[in-house]
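Lecture notes, continued. The same structure-token format from the folding unit now serves as the input rather than the output. Read the line below as a description of shape only.
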């Protein structure tokens, strides 16, 4: 009986009867790479968009090229964009992701600001993730190849991942390279840690070295890489004969790059990983406006809103529509546990967690996929610490691997029936392969259709503003972009239409977020361009009532006072109103040369020669080589009846520019 039992417990000797292509790893990798290229080839002509300005086009350190690498390593990731200390930590805990900024800086030195090359690099790296996912899953299921497990699940996981439209933010947006490098490095690290465990002899050390190097790159690309400190031991426990203790011990080498990263990160931006949450709604979605100030969500509101977003993530993975780059307040509304979706999400996610733990304890591969998804999502879920926004499609870039793996495993379990001691027919795989093919095709079409929206800020903001109608940030962004682009519009009718459209979006932003100082600033700019200076000034003043130290509002207000003064003087011939505005402009910026000149002109036209002389004298002091300045001063003296000085200064003007009198 003992022999009989021993025989029945052995893994059955089976053979997979399948066409050669089904077990051709090289062919599979080519298919994955080509598929990725086909999906994202339409991004190669794209411009910079969205956060590319933070890491490339408006980042002083990156724009210095390789000479800026020292500063990139010494400061928070956002420091080169915000220029001044403090603003780079508007998001709780700060950000330290220097590796991809170093890549961008090197690119600036080698080929300059050519976004097409950077888009091409993103495409190549994304294809690399697809290939590494395939190799990793093949290695995870190495012992299952005879059944077709390894071939089908690896290929299905990689194809579903590569095709998924939710990844367009990370691939079509150059800045998404931090997510790409973090996942690519993490998967390489996991792959070689597994090879190290399975290998014998000298190659073990080599594999660990490669894994640690890849993990260093991933960590310095984005902090969520650290979740693989849990993924790797879970992997070794589920997919090998290792017990939990051995799996943890074998994963310890990855602590070396982790400790290195934490030491460097702490030295640069401090140890405050979570940090105190900011008190501005655009940097902390878990505060709300009450009266003229902000108050935090209640505990119930916070948890309910977070769990609602977790359910939305699952929805986007299953049905990736509609997609938007912006989930800022209040695209996600304030939830409470009276909302059935929040309750469903709690039950569903707790159930998945318990089920995943139970399956993993039995070394069930489905359990690994579930726990991988929950573990890698947890760090960006807002449950551990605030991440600056309610949710973002980029946050499920890494977790989506677990989702795709689980789908592949479930398709196998549902449709492939394995009979012990029997020949495994390829016909078992036709239905699941067909399903994967159809889903990958549909997802691929959605991806290709979504990519053009990422062409530049205008295409992105205008399109997504119709989806994220209740996002104050996006309504503000599209308004600001329309105002900026209107400056270059030559057709006056079109220009005014763009500005009026911008005003509509900016008013929507204020309706959502009444204390949004940047929206008031942009409204001031919009009305300035419409020459409605009274409204422009009122909006700047409102922005300053929210933040008296708002530098941009103070600066723009001074310029607008000056513009209003010129407008009412030259266009409306209202010298009193012109003088009132120019006086305020001088108070705001006493050294502004044009304001001083205009005050001289207004006083001269008003008949106050002494005042005119005083201001024109200041102009000649500030601009001694300006023929026009000396001519104005001469004319002012002439108006005052001092013909001798008038002629003297006019002659000085002619000496500086013989044509000055003809130009007047």
């Amino acid at each position: 009986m003992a022999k009989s039992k021993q025989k029945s417990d052995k893994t059955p000797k089976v053979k997979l009867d399948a066409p050669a292509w089904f077990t051709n790893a090289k062919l599979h990798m080519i298919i994955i790479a080509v598929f990725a290229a086909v999906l994202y080839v339409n991004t190669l002509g794209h411009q910079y968009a969205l956060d590319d300005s933070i890491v490339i086009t408006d980042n002083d350190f990156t724009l210095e090229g390789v000479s800026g690498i020292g500063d990139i390593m010494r400061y928070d990731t956002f420091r080169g964009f915000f220029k001044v200390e403090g603003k780079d930590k508007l998001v709780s805990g700060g950000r330290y992701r220097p590796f991809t900024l170093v890549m961008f800086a090197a690119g600036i030195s080698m080929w300059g600001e050519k976004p097409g090359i950077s888009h091409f690099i993103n495409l190549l790296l994304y294809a690399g993730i697809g290939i590494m996912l395939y190799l990793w899953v093949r290695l995870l299921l190495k012992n299952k190849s005879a059944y077709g497990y390894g071939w089908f699940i690896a290929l299905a996981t990689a194809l579903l991942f590569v095709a998924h439209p939710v990844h367009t933010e990370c691939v079509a947006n150059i800045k998404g390279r931090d997510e790409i490098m973090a996942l690519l490095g993490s998967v390489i690290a996991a792959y070689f840690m597994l090879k190290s465990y399975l290998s014998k002899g000298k190659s073990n050390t080599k594999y660990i070295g490669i894994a640690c190097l890849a993990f260093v790159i991933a960590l310095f690309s984005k902090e969520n890489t650290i979740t693989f400190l849990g993924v790797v031991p879970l992997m070794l426990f589920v997919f090998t004969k290792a017990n939990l203790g051995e799996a943890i011990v074998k994963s310890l080498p990855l602590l070396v790059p982790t400790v290195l990263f934490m030491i460097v990160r702490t030295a640069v931006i401090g140890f405050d990983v979570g940090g105190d949450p900011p008190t501005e709604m655009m940097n902390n979605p878990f505060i709300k406006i009450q009266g003229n100030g902000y108050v935090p969500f209640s505990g119930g509101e916070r948890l309910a809103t977070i769990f609602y977003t977790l359910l939305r993530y699952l929805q986007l993975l299953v049905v990736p529509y509609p997609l938007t780059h912006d989930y800022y307040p209040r695209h996600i509304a304030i939830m409470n546990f009276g909302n059935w979706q929040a309750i469903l999400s709690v039950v569903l996610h707790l159930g998945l967690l318990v089920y995943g733990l139970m399956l993993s304890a039995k070394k069930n591969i489905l359990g690994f996929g579930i726990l991988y998804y929950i573990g890698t999502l947890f760090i960006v879920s807002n449950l551990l610490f605030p991440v600056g926004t309610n949710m973002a499609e980029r946050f499920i870039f890494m977790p989506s691997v677990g989702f795709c793996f689980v789908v592949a495993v479930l398709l196998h379990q549902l449709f492939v029936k394995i009979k012990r001691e029997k020949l495994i027919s390829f016909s078992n795989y036709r239905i699941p392969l067909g399903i994967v093919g159809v889903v990958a095709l549909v997802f691929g079409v959605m991806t290709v259709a979504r990519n053009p929206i990422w062409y530049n800020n205008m295409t992105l903001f205008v399109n997504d503003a119709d989806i994220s109608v209740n996002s104050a940030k996006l309504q503000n962004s599209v308004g600001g972009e329309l105002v900026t682009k209107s400056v270059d519009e030559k057709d006056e009718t079109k220009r005014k239409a763009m500005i009026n459209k911008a005003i509509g979006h900016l008013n929507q932003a204020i309706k959502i977020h009444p204390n949004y100082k940047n929206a008031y600033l942009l409204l001031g700019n919009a009305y300035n361009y419409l020459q409605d200076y009274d409204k422009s000034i009122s909006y700047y003043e409102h922005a300053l009532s929210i933040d008296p130290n708002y530098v941009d509002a103070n600066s723009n207000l001074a310029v607008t006072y000056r513009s209003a003064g010129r407008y009412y003087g030259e266009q409306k011939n209202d010298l009193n109103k012109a003088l009132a505005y120019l006086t305020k402009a001088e108070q705001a910026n006493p050294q502004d040369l044009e304001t001083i000149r205009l005050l001289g002109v207004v006083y001269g036209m008003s008949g106050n020669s002494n005042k005119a002389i005083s201001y024109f004298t200041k102009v000649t002091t500030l601009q001694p080589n300006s023929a026009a300045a000396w001519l104005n001063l001469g004319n002012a003296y002439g108006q005052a009846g001092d013909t001798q000085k008038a002629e003297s200064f006019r002659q000085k003007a002619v000496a500086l520019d013989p044509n000055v009198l003809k130009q007047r």
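Point for the exam: The CA atoms of residues 243 and 658 lie 93 Å apart.
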